[in-house]
Specification:
By secondary structure, this protein is an alpha/beta fold. The protein has helices at 52-59, 82-92, 108-118, 125-134, 150-162, 180-196; strands at 10-19, 29-30, 34-37, 41-45, 67-72, 75-76, 93-96, 168-172, 200-205, 216-219. It has a domain at 10-96 and 159-219: 3-Layer(aba) Sandwich (Rossmann fold). 31% of the residues lie in helices and 21% in strands. Strands 1, 2, 3, 5 and 6 form a five-stranded antiparallel beta sheet that branches. A five-stranded parallel beta sheet has the order 7-8-9-4-10, sandwiched between helices. It binds adenosine-5'-diphosphate and magnesium ion. Residues 21, 25, 29, 46, 48-54 line the site of adenosine-5'-diphosphate.
Length: 225
Amino acid sequence: MIPDTHEDPLALSVSSLSYSYGVGSETTLTFPEVQIARGQSCAVVGPSGCGKTTLLHLVAGLLTPQAGSIHVAGQRMDTRSQRDRDRLRGRLIGIVLQQLRLVASLSALDNLLLAQRLSGQPVDRAAATEQLVGLGLGQHLHRRPGALSQGEAQRVAIARALMGQPALLLADEPSSSLDDANAERVLRLLTEQAAEHGAALLVVTHDARIRGRLDQEIELTGAAA
Ligand SMILES: Nc1ncnc2c1ncn2[C@@H]1O[C@H](COP(=O)(O)OP(=O)(O)O)[C@@H](O)[C@H]1O
Ligand SMILES: [Mg+2]
């Protein structure tokens, strides 16, 4: 049984977290405390290799920490079974990974419908269409990812991440490979969309252009234990 989640004022709380990839990896990555209130945004910044993507995958429940705790919307995530975590992720978290992982053989719209199905949401074609139109993709509903520009494909991935009205939106290096104008555009889009959907936003990035743009900034040093 997964209890109701919409009481805790914190969308994300990460405490005393550490992770080691093991097998051939000597170092243990340790992470600072992270607390993001509902509707707030946070950037985790630091150089390449300091553990940003690892942190994002831990928060998403794609990796299991060796120590520490992760709560999303009041739900402890890290101690649950994989199955419970998958269900909670589908309900609480939207993810925009660095590799967008859109299904190449499906249109933009069908990518959103597939995501709904996989995360256990009712398939709602109208809502998916509306979301894509809202992100300026109304002309591209039936295009496959390969026929979209990188920026457009990223917007499809953002639309997909927001489909389930997540409490927490995660984005890994959303602006890093974009020119200044498009980096600006995607940051604005993420913050606006998160606010509109009442989601907290966690961006992990080495992109210095994000500095000062979100409510909170946390520096990752890659401290190894
Ligand atoms: N699958 C993996 N197996 C072993 N080591 C990994 C793996 N993924 C990342 N690492 C190591 O963990 C550290 C943190 O990586 P990562 O979280 O990707 O950093 P960042 O996103 O900040 O660049 C790096 O030293 C990296 O080499
Ligand atoms: Mg990374």
